[in-house]
């Protein structure tokens, strides 16, 4: 036992669990053990598709793969939050394709053969996956087969394997795209209108009516005088519950305290910037001064009129009226104080088209000799892109070798500032963190006046005392609530705090109402029980949340008790419409003309021409009203009848058969309906495959 204990101490919890399972195998049957192991393993599953568990490790491999693909496509290894989400989604969609979509298509007898794949990639029927790939588009923006062939020929010479990886990625996309196209084509053949149906659709949509009508709109306020019995609600639930299926969700109440600077904090920031203005006006080292004293460093970019307005309209107005060296007195916008000083003005283009060759720079002398040699070759007539393909470290497969494309100050690579003043087609060298670059600016936009402005910025920041006061208030609520919603409700009333509601919060949701970065709240909500109250949840070190879980909405058809109130509201609304219809019937009883009915109801008679299901503009009408009109006899008073937005009384004054809805319109309408059906296929297949997505627990 001493040895066993030593192992447990050394290896920690994981090995303890494994040993526990091993010991358990001596005293339980194999089926029970398998069930226990499965339950243990399922906690680390990212999802399930067609009964197949998707482990965290399997999913992470796909994430790593698409991270590499993203790097090959963008040339950047860094991923921001949006990029990470895109990679995560790509990995999940790839799993859905492999485990749900493609197996379904294969069951229909569809496949892509080797000869067909060759034709899609190098033959006469180039796949749209390749024809839309940016790296294979020529100068005119059209697909260039030569660029594709050049790419394929480069694969064997690429020692990094990047080109081969990217081609495998494109090839898989070609296969999936082709199989989906075949599947959609197969389905489209079963979606047709026979001549009789087509003729009837055209005829029905070409019949238009001119109509006179009265409408009494429904009141959409909840009529609490109308009672709904539990039996009525249960009967409605039994009849329509198949339409009530919902995703998993959580209902929350929360108090949020936003940490904002106090009046004392604002006054301190104003005093601080006023003390700095004199030195800011005279210093010859603006970069160093702003590093020491400003919330923002020196911005070396040049701006044209209007571009600074997004940061500050005051700043934009000053910059293009002031002289070089002039200083703007401190001013306040929100909780930020600013002063500004105009540094320089130049005639500069908005963007430049840049080509480059990147050389390794470990041996600076060797890199310089190599650059000089390549520059001489290009100046003597060698093709820049061919030299780049053979010598540049930048092997982005998506663009012509050597092309960086159009760059602005916002997208400029650090160190490339000289591109904006360099003559067109002049070859220059620039050293950056990436290495030594041979640069050529091949095009420029028209130069405009731009200014460079130094901005001294001081934000009023909540002090430690202010921060602590907000934290203490939130902590008082959280600690005294003791995790119980009853106490939470009592305390919020006593402390004059007003809880907000957030309903149907999805698992993994990243925002709550207008608050972003709220994953911690949703994680808590999916681990808590109804009636629980959280401790303080801090977001962005600026918002303190205290959250209560008010309801758990499980995936599927909710139990009657959870949606009884919503059902009652629906029934009450329907009853109120019936009540409105009965009232109108009573009011107009015995009257025989629209004018008399309108006078009795205190309204007027409206007229509308060309009412039809297919006539232009008719789509804005209540569809029930259109249906009533289409089926009514001319010159016959109809109503009162209940529509979707009110009670109608009407008369068809005349009816005509036109020719505005053509056979092409009918076919287009059919295609639109088919398109909608196709869009529903992924969700239908996912439902059939019982797809479970548990990514929110891990990512």
Question: Which tags fit this structure?
Answer:
699 residues, alpha+beta, four-stranded antiparallel β-sheet, 46% helix, 20% strand
Strand and helix layout:
Elements: H1 2-11, H2 13-24, H3 30-42, E1 45-49, E2 52-55, H4 56-74, H5 81-107, H6 114-122, H7 128-131, H8 145-154, H9 162-189, H10 195-206, E3 207-217, H11 230-240, E4 249-258, H12 263-282, H13 286-293, H14 313-319, E5 327-333, E6 336-348, E7 351-359, H15 364-379, H16 384-391, E8 403-408, E9 427-432, E10 435-444, E11 448-459, H17 464-481, H18 485-494, E12 500-505, H19 519-527, E13 537-539, E14 543-553, H20 560-588, H21 594-601, E15 606-611, H22 623-631, E16 637-642, E17 646-657, H23 663-688, E18 692-693
Antiparallel strand pairs: 1-2, 1-18, 3-15, 3-17, 4-12, 4-14, 5-6, 6-11, 7-8, 7-10, 9-10, 13-14, 16-17
Mean pLDDT: 85
Distance between the termini: 40 Å
- The Cα radius of gyration reads 35 Å
What sort of overall outline do the alpha carbons produce when their principal axes are compared?
A: globular
Roughly how much helix do the residues carry, as a percent range? 40-55%
Largest sheet: 4 strands, antiparallel
Low-confidence sequence ranges: 1-41
Structure description:
Helix 4 crosses helix 5, helix 10 crosses helix 23 and helix 11 (230-240) packs across helix 20 (560-588). With 699 residues, the protein is an alpha+beta fold. A four-stranded antiparallel beta sheet has the order 15-3-17-16. Strands 12-4-14-13 form a four-stranded antiparallel beta sheet, with helices on both faces. Mean pLDDT is 85; it is low at 1-41. A hairpin with a 2-residue loop joins strand 9 (427-432) and strand 10 (435-444).
